[in-house]
Amino acid sequence: MLLRRLTLCSRNHLDYRRRVCGFLTRPLTQVPKGRAHVSSFAHRGELRQAKRIVVKLGSAVVTRGDECGLALGRLASIVEQVAMLQNQGREMMIVTSGAVAFGKQRLRHEILLSQSVRQALHSGQNQLNDMSVPVLEARACAAAGQSGLMALYEAMFTQYSTCTAQVLVTNLDFHDDQKRQNLNSTLQELLRMNIVPIINTNDAVVPPPEPNSDLQGVISIKDNDSLAARLAVEMKADLLIALSDVEGLYDSPPGTDDAKLLDIFYPGDQHTITYGTKSRVGIGGMEAKVKAALWALQGGTSVVIANGTHPKVTGHVITDIVEGKKVGTFFSEIKPAGPTLEHQTQVARNSGRTLASLHPDKRSEIICHLAELLTERQEEILAANKMDMDLAVNTGLLPAAMLKRLSLSPAKLNSLSLGLHQIAVAAQDSVGRVLRRTRVAHNLELEQITVPIGVLLVIFEARPDCLPQVSALAIASGNALLLKGGKEAANTNRVLHQLTQEALSMHGVKEAVQLVSTREEVEDLCRLDKMIDLIIPRGSSQLVKNIQRVAKGIPVLGHSEGICHVYVDAEASVDKVIKIVRDSKCDYPAACNAMESLLIHRDILRTPLFDQIIDMFRTERVKIHAGPCLASYLTFSPSEAKSLRAEYGDLECCMEVVDSMQEAVDHIHKYGSSHTDVIITENEDTAEQFLQMLDSACVFWNASSRFADGYRFGLGAEVGISTARIHARGPVGLEGLLTTKWVLRGDGHTAADFSEQGTMKYLHENLPVGQPLAGQRDSN
Fold first, then answer.
1. DSSP letter, residue 36
2. Confidence band for 217, pLDDT divided at 50, 70 and 90
3. Which of 33, 249, 327, 477 could connect to 737 by a Cys-Cys bridge, CB 3.0–4.6 Å?
């Protein structure tokens, strides 16, 4: 398909050139102004401001695996990204390899064709015998490949109405002042006319690079890495993206056991790097790339080295970098004052392992101390919260529901303290509890015991009360914890985290709970699949959806929607209906366990109960959205619901009519979110059928949906409500933060002992469970 498009493009090349010439004679459209070029960007997020960008395509990116020809599909996706950024008003330049590989392909084809013709003339037959291709000289390959490479670029960019121009350079073009000024002037004019310059060293005439030939303070053009760096500085580019066949810069050669990909590299860290061999193609290796990157960085250009060959990321690697996403290695001159996220995660894991090995009494003591600090340091907490509230009110960006969540009060802190004391009690029997014990054979016992999950990442919005709750649950379950709170509660979160670490310090595990306060994007956090074991989002449905979408290989515990239903059966009690429906909808409309859809049995229509429900909604100022069936029954119906799968999060709800309990169940399965659903009826058989047939996380009979809460369930606190089908489901408390492992105690047993020739037999005798592991309480 690509080749056919390129062929068609070549046929229309003359028409395209006429269109481009016509475009260049028209006044250019206004493009966004670039930033003042003073120094490089300090943080990835600032890369969105990059106006002038140089994209360097290494030989391994442009060429095929056999080094004879170009990787057309890969090149097409890169061209698409460059054209898109160009059309956004940015100024794009490409430094490309590939002429030698393209020329090698053409010359090999010509040589083989020539040899076959000569052999046919001499032998009188078309049979080819012992044909071999001589070693091709690189300069000749470059000469043969330059025109074809440029034609290919031009054809590809034509698909996006983008014009290109070829610029061939050598070392002399930079060392000679007049030539350098001419080059600068040419490139400036091309960029002004919205043309993408395609730049390459003139490999047909360039001499071999001389070792250590750099001038004082000036990098010599030895390869396309140094060319891209020199060009970026000369043109005052904001960003240089160097694409290669590795993910970025590693602290040791990629593929070695301890090799670690560096997210950010600082000039002072050069001594920590061990370089490996260079790429399979090209002149320079990673050491040359780093040298060129540091030179460009010193000249005021930000640099990112990333992988341009990976099939899963090539199609968006350039745009991801420009959007500030954590891709490749970002070179920065400014080292942040605080620890990196990776360091925080590793420190938390190490401290969490110590936390898990503590005596249960010690974990309880930590939680009780934290509960006491919440009341003893109440004034300090409320003062910080007042700063956050004042800022939120003054900016006016937070809705009333989020302001309510952001606000703390003495009563709320006292309630938090009480919940933490409950968790402290539960912590006595959590980690190391025996769930199953089996005597496999004589002197061979197997146990299944509870253990922490590992490192938890909890992301929460403007709800600072979440921090001590989740911290206490993590401490009780022996898990390390990373907390990423909303900026709206930054001051409150900082004080609460300090109190949490103060409590942890009493038993030497201060670092087990970390507050992520760096500029890391949530999407970047969700990519740390080798460091984080579970993500728990606490916030809006949009937050949960976003995290579930971007999480890469990390389980997400939570629910994206809270579309809770209440079904009023034909045999429901009038008093219970009014009481339960009012509480489910009006107690806290923004909560995830608030009712969003009310299902009414058809027999209740035009009865006093129906009128009372409507009157109650009117009194509570609840806006009703009628479902299609309800609207068909009423002469003057409320506004019809746009969707039966809506989560309003306010004093609004959908109201619909069903013919039976079975239809109500079917409706909930189709339009619900498997969160919490309720039946109101006095018929026990109907209720039991509803409870058994519905597969939501929480199913209630004659009780408000607002009971779907960890505190009300007696869990002390919850990290959230999960609608997942595996692991924890419903309100997730302490038990949901534990997993299990198997422990086998033997006495020199081997599998051969139980073979046909062996002397032992399996007993598989179940033993009493529930006790902690033998010796655990004494060992700590």
1. P
2. very low
3. 477
Rounded Cα gap, residues 250 and 265, in angstroms: 10
Rounded to 5 degrees, φ, ψ at 113 are -65, -40
Alpha helices, H only, 249-322: 286-298, 317-322
Residues 6+ apart with CB under 8 A from 339: 347
CA nearest neighbour of 514 among 737, 353, 351, 734: 351
Flag the least confident range among 143-157, 264-278, 570-584: 264-278
Instruction: Name the H helices within 519-622.
Output: 522-525, 541-550, 574-586, 608-619
Q: For residue 438, what is the enclosing H or E element?
A: strand 434-441
Q: What is the dihedral of CA 622, 628, 633, 634, to 10 degrees?
A: 40
**Mean pLDDT lowest for which of 197-206, 219-228, 617-626?**
219-228
d(Cα 344, Cα 356) in Å, to the nearest integer? 18
Among 368, 370, 366, smallest CA distance to 356 is for 366
Q: Which of 704, 653, 651, 713 is nearest to 680 (CA)?
A: 704
Supply the angle between the helices 608-619 and 574-586 in degrees, to the nearest 10: 30
pLDDT of residue 128: 47
Measure the CA–CA gap between 317 and 185, rounded to whole angstroms.
30
778 contact partners, CB below 8 Å, separation of at least 6: none
* pTM exceeding 0.70: yes
Kindly tell me if the per-residue pLDDT of 442 is higher than 60: yes
The token duo for 740 is 């299990």
Question: Which amino acid is located at 742 in the chain?
Answer: W
C-alpha torsion angle, residues 344, 347, 353, 359 (rounded to 10)? -100
pLDDT tens digits, 82-115 = 999 999 999 999 998 877 777 777 777 677 667 6
CA distance 81 to 220: 30
Helix (H, G, I), strand (E, B) or coil at 208: coil
Distance of CA 365 to the CA centre of its chain: 36
